[in-house]
Amino acid sequence: MSDLDLVRAIEERSFNAWPALEVAVVDGWLLRFAEGYSKRANSANALAPTARLEALLPLVETLYRRHAITPCVRLTPLAAPADGELLDRKGWSVIDDSLVMVAPLAGYDPTVPADMTLETVASPAWVEGYALASRRPDLKRDVLARMLAAIRPEVVFATVSDGGRPVCFGMAVLERGMVGLFDIATDPDARGRGHARRLVRTLMGWGRGKGAMQAYLQVTVGNAVARGLYDSLGYREAYRYNYRVPT
Fold this sequence. Notes:
The chain has 247 residues and is α+β, with helices and mostly antiparallel strands. The longest helix has 15 residues, at 3-17. It is built from seven helices and eleven strands. 32% of the residues lie in helices and 32% in strands. It folds into two domains: 3-99, no CATH class; 106-212, Gcn5-related N-acetyltransferase (GNAT) (Aminopeptidase, 3-Layer(aba) Sandwich). The protein is globular, with a radius of gyration of 18 Å.
C-alpha cells in the first residue's frame, strides 16, 4: 500500500467512524456539517489531490456560514499543495496541527479487564461521562449522541471504573481490517494511574479479536502526554493534517 493509499484508506474509515449529520460532495471535496460540534465533522475535506479548492472556496464559505458554522478546511495529504498556498495568501489561520498514527495489532489481548465495560451503543451514561471527563467547552451532548448513533460500522464504547466510579472513556470503530480509536478521555482527578493505557490496549485487543490487523488514531502535535502513550504502544506517524479558518 502506497503512502497515499494508506491516507485514503484511513480517511474513508474515519469519515465513517465519526459521521457528520449532513454532507455535500462538490468537485472532489467532502463538506461535512454537524451543527458546529467538532472540527472533524464541520470541515471541508479533499477526496483526491486532483481536486482544487480555489473555485470552490466561495461556496464553502457560503454554505458553512448559512449553517451558522465558521468556515473550516481540513488539509490532509489528499489536498493539493496549492490549496494550502491559496489559504495562506488569503490569510486563513492554521489551527490544530495533528498526527494520524497507526500501530499493528499483533500480540494485543482481546480480554476485557474486570473494571472495564464495553457497550455496543453509546448510552446516556457514556455520553455524560465522556462529556465530564473531556472538559471540552464546545461539547454539545445532544449533537454528540446523534453522531454516535449514526455510526454504521461495528463500534464499541469503553468505560473504565476506579473504585466503582467511571473515570476513563473511549470508543473504537471496526471497518475493513482497521480499528479506529476516538474520544479517549480520563477524568482529570484520575489521571496518572494508567487508565488510558489499559483502555487503549483493550480497544486494540477488541479490534484484533474481530480480525483487524491495524489500529489508527489522531492526536494533536502538541499533546506530548498522549503522544508518549501512543509511542509506547507501538503507534507511528502515518501522516499529518491541520485545519484552516478565516481570520
